[in-house]
Design goal:
mainly alpha; single chain; Arp2/3 complex 21 kDa subunit ARPC3
């Protein structure tokens, strides 16, 4: 029997809440003094979106955040807004966020099917994979295109953020683990949530 059509509304609420969370985590940047790229908690919130919501909803939450910021609401790092952000050195990082959340969520969902003693390791690995394999390369590309840096310099700049990002990913994994223990069905696929025969 099909369940009531409340799940889509619940999904929309979760997507909106996590988009707002990313916005809040973006508003107090710490100037890094490196080619105009600030240090924020954005990547932690992006990882949380993927780890808690899963690939699809995490992607949509992060995409909503990006679209709202580019549309002109001052929710991007440091209150920035508007399409002009795409001409700045952080454009690659910003555009990577939906893809990073999706990758993180996909890996997390796979790992959470394993015995519970491995969940933190899987969540941590998923968050790190999203940050290192998606966000960092696209951040490097953005630095090359918009800041005019050669590949070697852009890579050095981007890698300077990785140690702190790793700490943020492990914190995100710990938070996500606590959320999943409290709400174990939260990462269920939409098919499993909406349809029961």
């Amino acid at each position: 029997m099909a369940r009531p059509a409340a799940a889509p509304g619940a999904d929309l609420a979760l997507i909106a809440v996590f988009a707002a969370l990313i916005a809040v985590f973006s508003l107090t940047p710490i100037p890094a003094g490196v080619i105009g790229v600030p240090i924020t908690l954005q990547t932690l919130a992006v990882a949380l979106a993927g780890l808690v919501l899963g690939a699809w909803r995490g992607f949509l939450a992060t995409l909503l955040y990006v679209v709202v910021g580019l549309a002109g609401l001052p929710v991007l790092a440091g209150g920035a807004a508007g399409i002009g952000v795409l001409a700045g050195p952080t454009a690659g990082y910003l555009l990577s966020f939906p893809l990073a959340a999706a990758a993180t969520g996909a890996i997390a969902a796979h790992g959470l099917r394993r015995p519970s003693r491995f969940h933190y390791l899987w969540l941590g690995a998923a968050a790190i994979a999203g940050a290192v394999l998606v966000t960092t390369p696209l951040g490097i590309a953005g630095l090359m295109v918009n800041a005019g840096l050669p590949l070697s310099t852009a890579t050095v700049v981007a890698l300077g953020f990785v140690p702190l990002d790793l700490v943020k990913m492990l914190v995100a994994a710990a938070i996500a683990l606590a959320v999943h223990k409290a709400f174990p069905a939260l990462l269920a696929s939409r098919a499993a949530v909406v349809t029961e025969q």
